[in-house]
Write a structure and sequence with these properties.
With 467 residues, the chain is α+β, with helices and mostly antiparallel strands. 36% of the residues lie in helices and 20% in strands. It contains 15 helices and 19 strands. Strands 12, 13, 14, 15, 16, 17, 18 and 19 form an eight-stranded antiparallel sheet that branches. Strands 5-6-10-8-9 form a five-stranded antiparallel sheet. Helix 8 runs antiparallel to helix 13 and helix 13 packs antiparallel against helix 14 (386-405).
């Protein structure tokens, strides 16, 4: 492999090729503790599309797989290394190339941090909607690769809904440009959407043209407490049925509420379930939306409803939702699942997770995006206990089974990665899996990009270790 390493150093510079195992270890895996990972040959950090092309051509000639990676904030193992691969990290490609206020678009490189982009376009009175919980450090490239979501999905959709076009380096080193800069465009296949969410299995994204929106009004916030999760679920159904579209609607179950109360040293007085909603319509329109949501919550049996237009109060209320994962760390390591169910089935999912928790003997807290049914049951376990780790893994799979049985999907925003391959096959069926494989073979016949992620092509992926 020395010849390949020499070629990589020539392509990106010697300082941008990392081979020290103590250094490359930090690039082996993302935030999912269950996903397998291997030992990379090298980690490369290109700074341009031309350098990415050179790396891809060198690896293709040597028959060495490439695993594209952003900041590593993922939760599915999609960026996990396989043995002998080159991990291609895009974080140094971090330029905001263009902000076009008149046409409401931005052109960015994949290493741009989500929050940095949001801040940059806000100066122009514009808004980039996708807001994953890790938006202060996750990158646009990773968001694109996993089709990430966030708290605002109920109104603004997931990442793909804000993407106009992409630049992608293909397996032969050629640069493909997809999409457009116009609001409308239906010329040819929608290749942009094909690459968004492909988890680095079809190519390396080197640039994205993103649609922006006018900056919303300052949000007004509502919180509603319920004695039972069924009542909270009924409130969500009422909001949806009545056609109300808040900019945010989150749910917390009893376990997550208690964890946050202990962590923040506060009393949320929230009973068994808490709904947090926001409207960014502003002024009288926003007040009408919150009043309609309040009416729906009261009709569903809410014990307490409180609404505020004060930004500081709103931030404090939302801080409880954002603090859940940190609060759970007090009890042990956490493992976050990602299932999406019909919004009418949210209460059934939470009740099912309570049963799974009791059988497993492990704490499971459920929080999620009630507005679109995307729930994040989070399993807490002792990572030093092999028995608890095994029970956590079984509970993880049982939650996926539960989600499918309720008419849902195995992932709403985290992706498939290397942890849910078998579940993807179950969800999409043999015909769907065959089509996936045929697309992969057509664009990447040598299985160069991220082998073994999402699905396999009939051979075992080269992975050897577990976290």
């Amino acid at each position: 492999m020395e010849a390949l390493l020499a070629e990589l150093r020539s392509a990106v510079g010697p300082d941008a090729v990392l081979t020290d195992v103590d250094v490359t270890a930090s690039y082996q895996r993302d935030m999912m503790p269950l996903a397998p990972y291997g030992q990379p040959l090298a980690v490369v950090l290109p700074t341009s599309a031309e350098q990415v092309q050179a790396v891809v051509r060198a690896c293709a000639a040597a028959g060495t797989p490439i695993v594209p990676r952003g900041a590593g904030s993922g939760l599915s193992g999609a960026a996990n290394a396989v043995d002998g691969c080159v991990v291609l990290v895009t974080t140094k490609m971090n330029a905001i190339v263009e902000i076009d206020p008149d046409n409401r678009l931005a052109v960015v490189e994949p290493g741009v941090v989500n929050l940095d982009l949001r801040g940059a376009v806000e100066k122009h009175g514009l808004f980039y909607p996708p807001d994953p919980s890790s938006y202060d450090w996750c990158t646009i490239g990773g968001n694109l690769s996993t089709n990430a979501g966030g708290l605002c999905c109920v109104k603004y959709g997931v990442t793909t809904d804000s993407v106009l076009g992409l630049d992608v380096v293909l397996a032969d080193g050629e640069l493909l440009r997809t999409g457009r800069r116009t609001v409308k465009g239906v010329a040819g296949y929608d290749l942009t959407k094909l690459f968004v969410g492909s988890e680095g299995t079809l190519g390396v994204i080197t640039r994205a043209t993103l649609a922006l929106r006018p900056l919303p009004q300052a949000p007004a916030t509502l919180v509603a407490a319920f004695a039972g999760t069924a009542d909270a679920g009924a409130a969500v159904s009422r909001v949806v049925t009545e056609g109300i579209v808040p900019s945010l609607m989150e749910i917390m179950d009893r376990t997550s509420i208690r964890a946050v109360e202990q962590y923040l040293k506060t009393d949320l007085n929230a009973g068994a379930a808490l709904l947090l909603c926001q409207s960014d319509s502003g002024g009288e329109a926003g007040r009408r939306e919150l009043a309609a949501i309040e009416q729906a919550c009261v009709a569903a049996g809410a014990e307490l409803v409180y609404a505020t237009e004060d930004l500081g109060e709103g931030r404090d209320l939302l801080a409880a939702r954002r603090a859940v994962l940190t609060a759970l760390e007090v009890y042990g390591a956490w493992l976050t699942d990602d299932v999406c169910v019909p919004r009418t089935k949210i209460a059934d999912l939470i009740a099912g997770c309570e049963r799974i928790s009791a059988v497993a003997g492990l704490r499971i807290a459920v929080v999620g995006h009630a507005g679109d049914g995307n729930m994040h049951p989070t399993i807490v376990y002792d990572p030093t206990s092999a028995d608890e780790f095994a029970r956590a893994r079984r509970a993880f799979d049982e939650i996926l089974e539960l989600g499918l049985s309720l008419g849902g999907t195995i992932t709403g925003e985290h992706g498939v990665g290397k942890i849910k391959r078998e579940w993807l096959a179950r969800e999409i069926g043999p015909v769907g899996l065959r089509v996936h494989r045929e697309i992969k073979r057509a664009l990447d016949p040598a299985n160069l990009f991220n082998p073994g992620s999402m699905f396999d092509l009939g051979e075992e992926p080269r992975v050897s270790r577990r976290a």
